[in-house]
Amino acid sequence: SEKTVVLCGINIYFCGSLQGGVNDEITLTAYIIIALLEIPLPVTHSVVRNGLFCLEIAADEKENHVYTKALMAYAFALAGKEEKRKALLGSLEKEAVKKDGSVHWQRPGKEPEVDLPYYRYRAPSAEVEMTAYVLLAHLTTQPAPSQEELSFASLIAKWISGQQNPNGGFSSTQ
């Protein structure tokens, strides 16, 4: 399912089967901005600047999906946009699932996990992925993360490591 789309004035050719939890322009823009900033392209590059402008407008909307917020928080962290990063992380913390001394995020409307003594629940890959993006957003900041952020990040890392299978992998390679 390969296609070309125009996102915030950027022509993008991509494979739709590689998308994660949400299928919309803002989420895809965040993916692309993250990839470009990790190259690393500077935030002053016109494509990065235009994409970040679109994300800034979208971040002000109240109806963003939790998955999209996680991606945007990491994109803003990479771009050094501290105020936007903190605002999204604050919003995400309100939606966090805090259980058994760990923290994670799940898709809205998802069925609660089955708690059976003989069965070890593993979250779907999209939930592991979005939780990992939130962890990256907490740890990617200048100056270094505060002690409070590191403590919260350790609760996220605890949940992620609990999702590993006996071979060290996850429910998907995504």
TrEMBL record:
What PANTHER family does this protein map onto?
A: ALPHA-2-MACROGLOBULIN, MACROGLOBULIN / COMPLEMENT
Q: Name one GO cellular component term.
A: extracellular space
Name of the featured protein: Pregnancy zone protein
Locate the Alpha-macroglobulin-like TED domain: which residues? 17-174
Under the heading InterPro entries, the entry gives: A2M/Complement_sys, Alpha-macroglobulin_TED, Terpenoid_cyclase/PrenylTrfase
